[in-house]
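Checklist before submission:
- one chain only
- standard amino acids only
- sequence pasted in full

Submission:
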Amino acid sequence: MASAPRVIGGLTFSEIPGQIADGSILCLPLGAIEQHGPHLPLDTDVIIAEAVTSRLVERYAGDFDTWQLPTISVGLSREHEWAAGTLSLSITAFTQMMRDLGKSIARALPTKNLVLVNGHGGNRGILQNLIYELQGDCGLNVCVIHPLALSKVKADGADIHAGMDETSLMLAIAPDKVRRDRIEVQKLPPDAAAVTAMIVDQGATWPWSSGDRRLAVNGVTGDASMSSAEFGQRIMESILSEARGVLGRLREQGTRQKR
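Returned file contents:
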């Protein structure tokens, strides 16, 4: 008989004290609803965040007593707002939601260990600041995993959005959601220098848009034509392997905070 999924929402309130311990690690998937070119669905980041989280929870249940929290599906996606279907919260709303959720987690569950599994690059900047408030104001022992950045397996070049990496992951975890006949060959970004200056360069930050034809073709920055389920599986395995060290550091940090 297969073990029950380690999902918080599947427990009753009376089961929480017997299942969730002081040292358990909670994993919260964060995604986005936004355009991912003509070949990937709007909820690509949600699917990837949930897939990484569920596999992480399953793999490290024995070592770190990992549990999955309900997904936050809408994030900060203003860079894609030109496209139909893209949903985005304001920075104020996103911040308040995360602060309220952090306080609720600290109140409702026995553990203070929290990993945010962020499937959307546009959430990164605000999360890097929010974790200080989640720690200082909510008492959480918290960190953020950015799966595609964590992976040691990556496509070459400026594979920014809906390119080889994301499409390969989707072919590995949700192949029925990929519109293979709509994948377009795009060997290089329309303007590689603009992509580097406006998206990649860490020395300056710009309000870029995937609707800018210098930066993307039909919302894609990268070459999805070389994608494969095999490459996606390699990315996923690398993410999960690297995540072990992150979970270990989080556990150690929690131990130090209690001293």
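Reviewer check: The chain has a mean pLDDT of 95.
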